[in-house]
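1st attempt posting a full record on here, be nice pls
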Amino acid sequence: MTAFNALMAYQRETSALAQIAGRLGWDQETVMPRGAAAQRGTEMAAIQSVLHARRSAPEVGDWLAKAEAPDAAGQAQLREIRRAFDRARKVPGDLAKRLAQVTSEAQGKWAAARAEEDIAAFLPVLAEVVALKREEGAALAAGGDVYDAMLDDYEPGITAAEIAALFNAMRPRLVELRAAVLEKPAPAGVSGTFDAEVQMRLARRVAQVFGYDLNRGRLDKAVHPFSSGSGSDVRITTRTSLTDPFNCLYSTIHETGHAAYEQGIDPAYALTPLGQGASMGVHESQSRIYENQLGRSRAFTGWLFDEMRGLFGAFGIADADAFYAAVNRVHKGYIRTEADEVQYNLHIMLRFDLERALMAGDLLPGDLEAAWNDRFAADFGYAVDKPSNGCLQDVHWSVGLFGYFPTYALGNVYAGCLYQALRAAVPGLDDQLAAGDTLGATRWLRENLQRHGGLHLPRETIERAAGAAVSEQPLLDYLEAKFGALYRL
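the predicted structure (as tokens):
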């Protein structure tokens, strides 16, 4: 057996164990008994300890030194294995194990604190998570910027300075568009109650319409919607609100975008570094283009309106045009996952600045709520009313995902680039979507992006698919055209 083949066999076993760890996480957020949280933390710590030892094992370094890639895919495999090896070697095993245990327990404490609107109950464990993540970041940065080291876990090759410059370029046009839209009368929303089980039935139908293979996945409920897994086992979750069916349906479409990416990767890459998305920003490009450019389009919402009328009867919306306006209603709100396309990126900019300050030590966890509330009032013009609408709304910080938030906005930028190319490549797109047929769009995305998995670096992945350099311009142009027409600006 060559060094390359030995390394790949070892890597597939490591990836299989990582999938098991991911399944433990899925279970924790869906069906695990609440009283099992402490034990689950111990279980997660144990498996992460094994994974860290495998990823940093000396034999991996030996194989990397000797391995010769047989082709371009093999070169990419070595690139990603080497990157993971170098990062794992920098983080002490005890620290990796402690992080896994604390973040597993913190997730349950966050959920309980959120339900009780009790920020004080969450702050001690948050402080512990932040301290551990700063320690990990310092080890990874090796004298460099700690937050940049965090970013590299989710969007390799980008820096906080580059993200800040991108956000500074986006903010003026977003703020101007929001101000113009909010001066106009808001369209009516849905009214009445919507049975939760019927919502879930429609959610499964919509997920399948967007290409989600339920033979290799499943849809469940969770406090915070997410996607988990890869290859032949890719699971998604959503949530329901009796008065807001869009929360369930568009969370489902969003997570379907993530899941379709994982299900669409070339099976030859299964259980290897290439058998997953190129980055979280690229992943978000799929979830956001499914949810917004496709799922909130006038064409698709016309089909969805008919489906909802058939299941729920009248719900306060007169026709398909009014339904399209309701789906894309720009309105005041606190929750990132429920934000309209115009304001969503402003929510991300807030989180980016706060978590960057936490990692730098410029903001203490105990001061987070006040800092959040002050920044939200400055950015959005009204006060946060309760912690679950403020700094307790997202699960990310409880589980140590510092550096993750900016990838949501990067995903929107990437989606803007992809959508511009998609519309040129699929001229009959609107007619297809109006019939509830997403195949033209999803097949183009699968062929041009999804099937490649992690073969290319993130920016290259997008530029190859879009046929142009990454830029915020297509996204901003799309938003101004869409909402300018909707609100007759």
